[in-house]
Specification:
Layout: H1 2-27, E1 52-59, E2 66-70, E3 74-77, E4 83-91, E5 97-106, E6 114-119, E7 125-127, E8 132-141, E9 151-162
């Protein structure tokens, strides 16, 4: 009985992260946004009587080999209208790197109302040695966003995803 109980506890612990991820995706809790492009319904009405401040934050680990920052720190938007912005990233190393941005939206209740139609976060980004470039994001905030939310923060954390396939694995120890 103890072995069965231990196996059940191990199984529960193993499944806890996938269950949490599914619950966050369904409820919008935790600030997770979709990792696929949103489709904006035809005839979406822009709420010109309301403005929401969208703040942009870029995060990298202090030892990370990236320079990463938003083009602007915030913008005022009208729910229902498409907006474009960019984030700048630069590989600070002398070798190719592949990076991946993980988005987060705060407050968590706004995550399900924040729709990205184009985003550099949907795919891995390959950078040559010392390469830097602007990466675009196109988004819209759903007009159904609760009235009490007047400020949304879109944050990206940029990670080294993997070494390019043509580089030896030993080179990754310097990251």
């Amino acid at each position: 009985r103890l072995a069965i109980m231990a196996a059940c506890m191990f199984g529960f612990g193993f499944l806890l992260i996938p269950i949490y991820n599914v619950m966050c995706e369904i409820t919008g809790i935790g600030g997770r946004t979709s990792d696929t492009a949103a489709v904006i319904p035809a005839g979406m009405q822009v709420d010109t009587g309301r403005t929401v401040t969208v703040e942009f934050v870029a995060v990298v680990n202090e030892q990370a080999p990236w320079e990463f920052r938003p083009a602007v720190s915030s913008i005022e938007i009208h729910p229902g209208q498409l907006y474009d912005t960019t984030f700048y990233a630069r590989n600070l190393t002398d070798r190719e790197l592949v990076g991946q941005a993980i988005p987060s939206v705060a407050p968590g209740t706004a995550a399900k109302h924040f729709q990205k139609t184009e985003c550099f976060c949907f795919t891995a980004q390959k950078f040559l040695a010392r390469e830097g470039r602007d990466m675009g994001v196109q988004f819209m905030v759903d007009p159904d966003l609760p009235e009490y939310v007047d400020r949304i923060t879109l944050s990206y954390t940029f990670f080294v995803q993997r070494q390019p396939a043509n580089k030896p694995a030993a080179a990754s120890s310097a990251i």
